[in-house]
Amino acid sequence: MTSTFRLGTRGSPLALTQAAMVRAALCAAHGWREDAVEITVIRTTGDRVQDRALAEIGGKALWTKELDRALLDGAIDCAVHSMKDVETIRPAEIAIAAMLPRADVRDRLIGAESIAALRKGAVVGTSSPRRAAQLKRLRPDIATVVFRGNVDTRLAKLAAGEVDATLLAAAGLDRLGRGDTGVAIAPETMLPAPAQGAVGIETLTGSPAAALVAAIDHADTHACVLTERALLARLVADCHSPVAALATLAGGRMTLAAELLSEDGAEHVTGRIEGTRGEDLAETLATDLLARAPDAVRRLFAG
Ligand SMILES: NCc1[nH]cc(CCC(=O)O)c1CC(=O)O
């Protein structure tokens, strides 16, 4: 490792905020001065492709490929990601070395006081197949349109009247200083995306950087997010699949809740399981959900 610790990140305002959070945590853990961590901005495919629904070009490591390359080339020591955007299956050379404590996992609705309060036939901007399906499950009259760009861009499109409302992660809004934007939707109404609200730090597997980064790991967040990711792996799903999942830990017990939907939200299946070993919970719940899923849902999952 060189004398400075090189941290790679995307360049969006949210990504830069998250990178600064990781830098602060590393400096606090190791007694480093702030300038011991050098932040390198790396442009990803996802940042360049602003004009098409991500779901249309999914499955191509949109947010991670260039950061992976930089890690593998030794250009950076670690890469910071929203765990929600990290592919389900990662290269063996790259390890999730740590996660920051999870933030608010909920989605926020912006543009109406509640989902019920949306006008009949409202148009909601979202590029998330999960959010679109969940909205239509609750309100079949609602139409969704593709909505791209970073958080500020989306809020500007909403303000310009392009849509009636949008849904965004509370975690991102809060980190951008927009804690007063929108109303939180309870997980019981709209279960969040797997890994929503979690920031992860990747390194080369077994590298000196991995050990340094492990010092800032939040074990409970890590265990919960890995469980949600294990569910995705078992379902052969990713962040473009209409699937929601949330693991929580209390008193050493883990609860995993999940929902699979058809793309139009007309059909869905939900389940919940409690136990101690996350990977076992994910395996058991995935098997159960697939067994109970209506055909229109099952065919979207498990290959
Ligand atoms: N897919 C984009 C993305 N990836 C992570 C976040 C928010 C931060 C988080 O969930 O940790 C967002 C924006 C959003 O969904 O509103």
Walk me through the structure:
The protein is α/β, with parallel strands linked by helices and 303 residues long. It folds into three domains: 5-102 and 198-217, Periplasmic binding protein-like II (D-Maltodextrin-Binding Protein, domain 2); 107-185, 3-Layer(aba) Sandwich (D-Maltodextrin-Binding Protein, domain 2), CATH 3.40.190; 234-298, Double Stranded RNA Binding Domain (2-Layer Sandwich), CATH 3.30.160.40. The chain has helices spanning 13-30, 45-48, 65-72, 129-138, 151-159, 170-175, 208-214, 219-235, 278-292, 295-298, and strands at residues 5-9, 37-41, 78-82, 94-99, 107-110, 123-125, 143-145, 165-169, 183-185, 199-204, 243-250, 253-261, 268-275. The strands form three sheets. The protein has a five-stranded mixed β-sheet with strand order 2-1-3-10-4, with helices on both faces. The chain has a five-stranded mixed β-sheet with strand order 7-6-8-5-9, sandwiched between helices. Helix 8 packs parallel to helix 9 (278-292). The radius of gyration is 19 Å and the shape is globular. The mean pLDDT is 94. It binds the ligand NCc1[nH]cc(CCC(=O)O)c1CC(=O)O. Residues 82, 84-85, 168-169, 171-172, 196-198 line the site of the ligand NCc1[nH]cc(CCC(=O)O)c1CC(=O)O. The site of the ligand NCc1[nH]cc(CCC(=O)O)c1CC(=O)O has 10 residues, from strand 8 and helix 6.
